[in-house]
Amino acid sequence: MIKKYKVLIGNKERELSIIKKKKKNISLQVKPSMEIILSIPMRISYSYGLKLVEDKYAWIENKLKKYSSAADNSGVYYLGKLYPLKTEKSEVSIRIGEENIIFNSSENFDLVLNQWYEQKIKRILEGYLEKHTKLMELYPKKIKIKPLKSAWGICYSSGTITFNLNLIKVPLDVIEYLVMHELGHLKYPNHSKEYWEYIGKYIEDPKSYRRWLRKNGYKFIGGETLWDR
């Protein structure tokens, strides 16, 4: 069940969605679209949910400003760098220049960009998987690449690992970490102490990458969550 509200935050009217779910946790999320979403258990009233949001207006406003700033710096992310976008008529659909990404103006931008992203990340993942499957002696049954809304990767109990297409937007060392992170879930399907100790054998301070993604991930995927309890 969902109810929508208009709330005034930072002198601007924003849309708030309060969703009741069959869950124990409360979570507050701010999306790059500037939408605010509060998920609450069925037992909690909508009015109490509104009060929870009101208590976090300062946090929400800070996140909204961050997204607005990111939108002002429009361009295309590739391996951690934001490239300005230049359009021109060209025989090549898309290519990287020294300081920008050049796109053929006569083609469908989203389609071409996603195809280009997939080609690039597939090649990078193949290299890291070849290296780390041998090193860790962990072998997934199948690898998939597709856009994911709220995860960088998913390791299924079947042995399939799905990587987020948006990985191509983050730096190479972060991509390499995420490959090892998901491979580690073939052995430990959780984030237990044993899991982090195991990952730490192959990469120094793995949690530093997790912190980086939590701090910077909003630029590339999904939104930021305040609560998840």
Automatic annotation (TrEMBL):
One Pfam family this sequence matches: YgjP-like
Domain of life: Bacteria
Residue span(s) of domain YgjP-like metallopeptidase: 24-215
InterPro entries the UniProt entry points to: UTP_pyrophosphatase-like, YgjP-like_metallopeptidase
Protein name, as recorded: DUF45 domain-containing protein
